[in-house]
Design brief:
Elements: E1 3-5, H1 6-9, E2 13-14, H2 16-19, E3 31-33, E4 70-72, E5 78-80, H3 81-86, E6 111-115, H4 121-131, E7 135-140, H5 155-164, E8 166-169, H6 175-182, E9 189-192, H7 198-207, E10 213-217, E11 228-229, H8 244-255, E12 260-265, E13 267-269, H9 278-286, E14 291-294, E15 300-301, E16 303-305, H10 306-316, E17 325-329, E18 334-336, H11 337-348, E19 355-358, H12 383-388, H13 397-407, H14 421-430
Parallel strand pairs: 3-11, 6-7, 6-9, 7-8, 9-10, 10-12, 12-17, 13-16, 14-19
Antiparallel strand pairs: 1-5, 2-18, 3-4, 15-18
Helix pairs in contact: 4-10, 6-7, 7-8, 9-11, 11-13
Amino acid sequence: MATFSIRSMINGEFSSATATAAAEDQGQKVGLRYSMQRVQRAQVFRASANKASLKSSAPAQFAGLRRANLLDIDSNMTVSLTQILSASTVRVSASRAPRCATVMSAGAGKKVLMLGGTRFIGTYLARELVNAGYELTLLTRGKKAITSQIPDDTDDSYAKFAAAVKHIACDRSDPEAMKAALTGTGFEIVFDMNGREAVEAEPILDALPDVKQYIFCSSAGVYKKNDQMPHREEDEVDFNSRHKGKLYTEQLLDSRGVNWTSVRPVYITGVGNYNQVEEWFFHRIAAGRTIPIPGSGMQVTQLGNVKDLATAFMKIIDNPKAARQVYNVANERFVTFDGIAKACAEAMGVECPPIVHYNAKDFDFGKLKAFPMRDQHFFASVDKAMADLDWTPEYGLVDGLRDSYEKDFKRGRFIKAADFTTDDMVLEKLGVPAKQAVMA
């Protein structure tokens, strides 16, 4: 049986069985869960569980999840080719699942309220809902237009979408105004895409006592740092994280007896992204600059495309398996920091400039953000979402990044202009030239 060194397997994007290798350069061991039957998604089952407190670990609905096998890999260990192939899912682009809007027809005028429907995730989900026949109302503060054309729209499709969307102008930070605006509206489904605190959800529940589903956008950032990866939905959560308000919102929804579902994305990329994730790499590659990445560059993380996320949200509607559940949503494969840089260059159709590594503790960047991602392993299993929601990510790493590049960056649509201030601080101290190549 052929075997491969863990170190030799790390080359950018890779499957869950090889992801653990990055730990050796971090001076830690990552226990990587993987299932030898992962390709057979039907083997992911959940068992019923006794109710438990979310504050101590995770809500009761996660307690009985079947855990995949654990594989603890030391820096000197090798993994057989059979193991690697068993833990991976081979993707063929021709076999991609169809877009959600083309297969759903259950909308039939159901009244849907969305909060946070004018930015990034919400803009794609809103279009899916309208295309599927739902009667969509966006609640915003009313300070700007509720719809705008995105690159995927044609003039005709945008006109139809804009004409179909209704609007309620209200500031969700004002609970009494929210109750007055929503009482008696009869919304059957709520998509809460921008809620950050439990107090923001409470007036919605008070005003809509008969709501059929409350679907909440949370974050994978709620998980407590763990040596065993990937994060799974039943893992311990961190009430000291900056996303703690989302955890309290999940608690509130559960305590109110609502049919709720919470989605925890990892790093989301895509056209219209207002977080500087892929754009950070695009700026440096386009300028032909050396790319400074903290640590070893072998930190393992995970991206996901915004369109795949919107599809996952759609798959929750009227799905009994999703009742009172939490789902991680992202691409099913993992990638290193260095791998993201190389994938971005591939998406742009150019050679990747040189990459250098540095110890972030050696620098005082003040309030400046030197790198767009947390300097640690951070990735999550999406097996549960794939099984329960009959959902499969459509976009691979490079084609998702290519979509962002072609429709945003290449057209001059930036979140912010290039700023290499922190790069120059690092490169000067390392004695490395800032510019070693020019983009073709």
